[in-house]
Amino acid sequence: MNKKRRILIVDPANSPKSIQSNPDWRLLLVCSFRHMPMAREALSQGANVNCRRFDYLTPLHIAVQHNDTELIQLLCNQPSINTEARIIDGLIPLHKATFLGHKTAVEELLRNNVVINCTDNLGRYPLHYAALRKDMESASLLLKNGANVNVYDDFHESPLYTSVIRRPFLPMINLLLSHGATVTSGPNQISLCLLLEAILSARSASDIEILDLLFRKGADVNTTDLVGLRTPLHIAAMTGNSEVIV
């Protein structure tokens, strides 16, 4: 039976003269190796649980990256842990766990009461990433633990928008709507609203099925855009989509 080996390449320019004399560097290293005893030892010797690697990853980000719930628990048990530490793109550990589809890591972080309604540099919430990945389990966990379903990123897009327009997925749409998602525009949005965009881009039978669901869940058939005051019927007629009109 072949054993898997992990190889860690360390940039000599960024490594300290002696790893043994630097508990922070040692903690980052052993988290990358997922070595629990040495992680405990580094913490007991005063390693900063919020220290960062050269790429700005903290030990908790690294543990999440490996989907290592035991290591996540160890780090979250440290009194000074910052569960909202951000890396370069603004992702906190919960963002990263959701982005990677690591459901057990998401569950462990939520068990440790991390902040759930947080944004990255694009204004995206963890729920946006669950919708993007079509990850029903993570989305359900987030919603069950208090994630706000009607949130908008810097592009005025909600998780529902992601599931209707960017990554169409009927089960996710149903889940979000069942938790109170609204088919409305983001604040200060001047482009077409979600419903009008869905009609404009409807091509397949599955697209029509999504539209039917939105209408059954209360989407306003008389809604208009903010520029031309066009209704869903105007958009359907403009595109010649008779299935939508019917």
Automatic annotation (TrEMBL):
The keyword Repeat applies. It comes from Tetragonisca angustula. It comes from the Eukaryota. Keywords: ANK repeat, Repeat. SUPFAM superfamilies: Ankyrin repeat. This is Uncharacterized protein. Signal peptide: none annotated. ANK repeats lie at residues 89-121, 122-154. The lineage of its organism: Eukaryota, Metazoa, Ecdysozoa, Arthropoda, Hexapoda.
